[in-house]
Amino acid sequence: MSTKFFTNSEENTLINKFEGVFTYNPNIQYFDALVGYFRASGYFRIRPFLDKVPHIRILVGINIDKMLADAQKEGLEFFKNHEKTKEDFIKKIQEDIEKANYDKDTEEGILQFIDDLIEKKIQIKAHPEKKIHAKVYILRPVPFNQHTPATAITGSSNLTDAGLGGGNFYNYEFNVQLTEYPDVKFATDEFEKLWAESVDILPVDIQNIKKETYLNEEITPFELYIKLLTEYFGKNIDYDPDSMGDLPQNFKKLSYQVDAVNEGFNMLLKHNGFLLADVVGLGKTVIAAMVAKKFLMQNGRDNTKILIVYPPAVEKNWKNTFKDFQLDKYTKFITNGSLEKILEGHQDYWNKEDYDLIIVDEAHKFRNYLTGAFQNLQLICKSPRANKGLIDGLQKKVILVSATPLNNRPDDIFYQIQMFQDARQSTLPITNLTSFFAPLMEQYKTLKRFDELDVNKLRTIYGKIRKNVIEPITIRRTRTDLENIPEYKIDLDEQGIKFPKVDPPKKVEYLMDEKLNELFHKTVFYLTDEDKLKYSRYQAIAGLKQEIQDKYYENAETVSKSLAFIMKTQLIKRLESSFYAFKKSLSNFQTATDRMIEMFENNKVFIAPDTNVNKLLDKGWSEEDIEKEIERLSEENPKNQTFKSSDFKDGFIESLKKDSKLIKELVKGWNAIENDPKMDVFIAQLTKQFLNKKTNVEGKLVIFSESKDTVDYLAKALEDTGRKDVLVISAANRKQMYDSIVTNFDANWAADKQVNEYNIIITTEVLAEGVNLHRSNVIIHYDTPWNSTKLMQRIGRVNRIGTKASAIYNYVFYPSAQGDSQIRLNKTAFMKIQAFHTAFGEDNQVFSTEEILDEVKLFSGTYKEEEDERLKFLYFLRHFKKANRAWFDKIKKLPLKSRAGRNAVDIKKAELQKGTAAFLKTDKKFEFYWVDSNNQPKEITPIEAFKIFEADQKEKNTPLIETHHEHVNKALEHFETLEHKIAQSQTDPEALGGVAQRAKKFLSDLVKYPQVTEKQKENIQKIVVLIDIGKYTNLPTDIDRLQKKKANLNIALAEIDKIAAQYNVDLSDAQKGKKGKVEKPVLIISESFE
After folding, report:
1. Are residues 422 and 465 in contact, defined by beta-carbon separation less than 8 angstroms?
2. What CA–CA distances, in Å, run from 461 to 337, 458, 469, 678, 858?
3. What is the tens place of the pLDDT at every residue in 435-458?
4. What does the alpha-carbon distance between residue 515 and residue 93 come to, in Å, rounded to a whole number?
5. What is the biggest distance separating any 2 CA atoms in the chain, rounded to whole angstroms?
6. Helices (runs of H) and strands (runs of E) counted in the chain
7. Whole-angstrom Cα distance, residue 612 to residue 912?
8. Where are the beta strands (DSSP E) in 862-949?
9. Distance between CA 257 and CA 246 in Å, rounded?
10. Which of 420, 580, 896, 904 is most buried (most C-beta within 10 Å)?
11. Are 135 and 38 in contact (CB under 8 A)?
């Protein structure tokens, strides 16, 4: 059925109607358009039909409502304001150009429109008082009468690309075509009336539009370069030393610290926390105090309560610094092992909800979510603020302080940042951290299974973590950074600060004779081979019959394997530490195994599965202390279960006896060994190398071992050589010997109080943090820590400001080749160190001379290929702004999409020919692209982009290359495709793990009972939300543990009430956000090279 109506569906579009009328009515002399909204970017669709039309008139509406409101604000009557009418129209055209598709056709159409207006090919008017909603198009000949064909089209279509029905996306419109003379005449008369009342938009009004938009051809490459840096660095451009108020008299405002404070504070506001990961010796405590002071000032003194969490060793430092900054009366101080005091309501502390800012020193100690310390800290950090100050929001702000935030695996970062980020609803570019980290954790585990470490794959894993997670929330500068930035260097020079150079690690190797070599090989084989030692003594609960396991123990197999693995690891580490320590541990193993065989024979077997090893590790216990605790727990389990021999599976006693036989064989072999080649090398090199006056400036030496037995063994060996100047430190005597440590080894101690009673200090990890030992510049690692970032902490004791030495020497006693081939100690240590370097950047080699140091310097979330280039660009921009304020302000206002062409040969960048660089962004992230001459887009780093855009002030721009628009759109498509992929993987916040699913099902079943109160239902619903968004790491486990108890309803509800109180469910306002829509990336700037 024929109809005069059309809707832009199928081929029945407004643009097709125009084409038909112009094609079959060649005598059309007038094209009049009355539209509420006109887009210059839609003009190119109709322009081809208008070539032969002599009279083109477009009448547009403007925002009369706004002009009325503005007049009322000023207390004036509204009157026709021709100038404002023009301004409004021009502004709309500029906005349209800014929002238009970035393609050649649209751009040429916009330019054609401007030219047509200037050349008076078209006339445009804007009505100054009527709010025009009508859309009418009149196409008529001259003369116009009842005998000449004419057309009027009216309806909903504006003169835009979508309204016309052009392009791939168009609006559903409702239009009607009228051809009867009276209809067209009425429309023409109304148009003429409005036209007569309207304001002319003259060529002089429009000719500056090009200059005010990205079409400006006068923007130079240098201005574009400054615009790039300005957009990228944002708030960090402004150096604001006064933002944290006055500092104490004995503190100086150092520019590198001021930068860190301002940037860190911005991260606090945006992400609720940040990692302060400057390398050791750069004053992290002072920076944290300065951030705290700025927070106090902005949140209000009466509204702010601060908590400092620290290891006992650094208590004095924190308390003194906060007292100096006059922050102590707003602050509570607590050691990392005493957090339960806050949760239990101790009189010395405020309630957990009262704190606004929490600063956690040595935050890497809280990387293991299974420990009580992690749970306690997260409950404190994540509980909602009871009193909002001037800084809004219920979530506390958290600063995690650590020079070594990455200790072992990707999991370390994942769990640490959950002190201020929710696992499945984060503020970072990757909102679902659980789904982001899960595959990377698996890839890391897979890598560990191979004998040869694939460094590139490892770098890829940590590169992804660095870019998406670490960069937006981490401040980290190295000493090299400080020496390379002139402003920072001046600060150092004024204080007389010079950093020592850390020499590459030097190997200290030793050879074993044939007999020892054979025994060493055999021992490693017995300890590690699946067919040899089973460590059955430590797998007793797995040895119980199934029905008895189920009655008394959860996860018997897992617990047993874990305990056996710990014992195996202990023995292997002790073997690599010293033969003396190993013999001692092997003897203890023999005693424990034989004791259980004896229990079997007595038909009374005591089992203690609860190891709490992680808690002991958190407290800094030595390996021997842990081993003794395992023995104690093996005999005194809280459950106090006594079993009969018949309660065990067949074969368990045989497995115990086989272990006993193998251990006895090893004990016999090691008892026959009297020589120790490792110790021989140590003694031989002591004077020759370690205390050589050419390298050891003050004749002081620091020796670390993970094993207290090895420390004692070394001390006795030195004593046997006649030395009386050896200080031996362990957890047992650290406090008592503190004065001796600092007076003999701390270069910052008052010169008149320094003594030389001791020249050699031998210690366990207890001195790896919180103390200065930098009168020594030589450090020896007698054994390699399993967790090799401990090496960084150790070196940090001597690599500090104030040392007289210009170089630090770092000696590593390497595991023998035999050991390395079996237990992969080197590989494990290297892998962990490489992971740390790749993620955070580090300026010294620590472990291996073969280690590949990524030139990744992390500051302000920047990806750096070379030493601190990011800071160099920031300081270049600051200098330019200071020297050229007016020019800087003009460049800052350059519109988005600004671009320039450049001649690659003239600027000596021939490799860039026929390529395009683009800077894109969404609300959450920036991205830089390079599109090559083959039209292939790839992401590039900020530093690479800065170098491409870098330009001389005198450089002139050149015409854009033919493929410029195509290149830019390739970059936009690539970015959008990646964002789509991320969005697909980032499902609505929902906990999908088995534990969480069981917990949620249990809760959903619980609310069905009529006994459940409305308050309990509300809390249960809140708990489900908290589980889904990943607010608290261990909440699902707590609920799952409750459902496993199969308790009656009243007990279950009472437990739920306790959990709700523990997790502050009452105060929670957490809500699940929806799956984020994919944001269309915005083009900031681009440039192409001919």
Report:
1. no
2. 33, 5, 12, 37, 16
3. 899 999 999 888 877 756 677 788
4. 90
5. 127
6. 42, 28
7. 60
8. 898-902, 916-921, 926-931, 937-940
9. 14
10. 420
11. no
Kindly compute the dihedral angle of the four CA atoms of residues 613, 615, 616, 618, in this order, to the nearest 10 degrees.
Answer: 120
| Strands of the sheet with 122-126, listed across from one edge | 5-6, 175-178, 151-154, 136-141, 28-35, 55-60, 122-126, 199-201
Neighbours of 169 (CB within 10 A): 8
Which position has the token pair 């083109």? 56
The CA-CA-CA angle for residues 434, 436, 437, to 5°, reads 70
As a whole number of angstroms, the distance between CA 1070 and CA 1006 comes to: 21
Rounded Cα–Cα distance for residues 337 and 309 (Å): 9
In this prediction, residue 719 carries a pLDDT of 95
Q: Which residue has the tokens 């009157």?
A: 79
Tallying the residues shown for the chain, one arrives at 1090
- Rounded to the nearest 10 degrees, what angle do helices 825-840 and 455-465 cross at? 40
Dihedral sign of CA atoms 341, 345, 349, 351 in order? positive
Structure tokens at 641: 């279960």
Structure tokens at 291: 């951030």
- How far apart CA 1066 and CA 1052 sit, in angstroms, is 18
Whether omega before 384 lies within 30 degrees of 0, making that bond cis, reads no
Per cent of the chain over pLDDT 70 is 84
Task: Report d(CA 1043, CA 314) in Å as an integer.
Answer: 42
Side-chain half-sphere exposure of 465, counting CA atoms within 13 A: 30
Partners of 812 in the β-ladder: 507, 781
- Region of 907 please: left (phi>0), alpha (psi -120 to 50) or beta: alpha
Q: Is residue 1004 within a helix (H) or strand (E), and if so which, with residue range?
A: helix 994-1006
The predicted model gives 562-587 an average pLDDT of 87
Opening angle at CA 628, ends 626 and 633, nearest 5: 95
Kindly tell me the sign of the dihedral angle through the C-alpha atoms of 336, 341, 344, 346. Answer: negative
Quote the tokens at residue 846: 């620590």
Buried b (16+ CB within 10 A) or exposed e, 905-924: eeeebeebebbbbbbbbbee
Per-residue DSSP letter, 467:
I
* Separation of alpha carbons 119 and 59, rounded Å: 18
3-state helix, strand, coil in the chain (%, to 5): 50, 10, 40
The first and second tokens of residue 1027, run together, are 């589980």
Q: What is the 3-state secondary structure (H, E, C) of 763-797?
A: ECHHHCCCCCCCCCCEEEECCCCCCCHHHHHHHHH
Q: Is 964 exposed, middle or buried (0-12, 13-18, 19+ CB in 10 A)?
A: buried
> What SS3 state is found at 704?
strand
Beta bridge partners of 59: 34, 125
462-488 residue pLDDT tens: 888 888 898 889 998 877 788 888 888
